[in-house]
């Protein structure tokens, strides 16, 4: 549920979207646990992947319907917080480059695009870089710019973190 502080002027995103430069690629997620807000994570999208970037921005802003709001994340010790394919963003079609070989680094956000749809989302947390061949559909599309402390706190708590807001 989005709330605005008293006295603030609020505009729907589609009213101001045209004045935002196309190369702006910073988005955020707000994470909650047991209905208590734990903090925000600021995410820098990969500008080298324009098709993915555009569609991911739509997921964060809800411009095409599906949104990350309400998504429940689980913790997995090998790669951090993740969500699975039963979530609303599996409806978001994404054109992706599947060259696939990369190195997992702490703070990267990795998506799995099954049949051209974003079906899994991973916030990568292991300390040592780990070479991975993500294979067809896996791609690193963003990096956490601020908020790793929030991720680490939620990882200690285990499963049940929820994306309560994003944009």
From TrEMBL:
InterPro entries: Cyclophilin-like_dom_sf. SUPFAM superfamilies: Cyclophilin-like. It comes from the Eukaryota. This is Peptidyl-prolyl cis-trans isomerase.
């Amino acid at each position: 549920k989005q709330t605005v502080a008293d006295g603030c002027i609020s505009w729907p995103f589609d009213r101001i979207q045209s004045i935002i430069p196309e190369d702006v690629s910073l988005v955020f997620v707000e994470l909650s646990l047991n209905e208590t807000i734990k903090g925000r994570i600021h995410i820098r999208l990969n500008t080298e992947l324009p098709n993915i970037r555009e569609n991911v921005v739509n997921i964060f802003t809800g411009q095409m319907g599906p949104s990350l709001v309400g998504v429940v994340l689980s913790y997995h010790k090998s790669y951090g917080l993740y969500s699975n394919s039963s979530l609303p963003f599996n409806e978001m079609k994404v054109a992706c480059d599947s060259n696939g070989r990369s190195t997992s680094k702490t703070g990267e956000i990795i998506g799995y695009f099954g049949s051209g749809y974003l079906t899994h989302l991973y916030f990568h947390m292991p300390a040592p870089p780990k070479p991975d061949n993500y294979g067809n559909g896996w791609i690193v599309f963003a990096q956490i710019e601020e908020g790793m402390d929030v991720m680490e706190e939620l990882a200690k708590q285990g499963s049940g973190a929820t994306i309560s807001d994003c944009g």
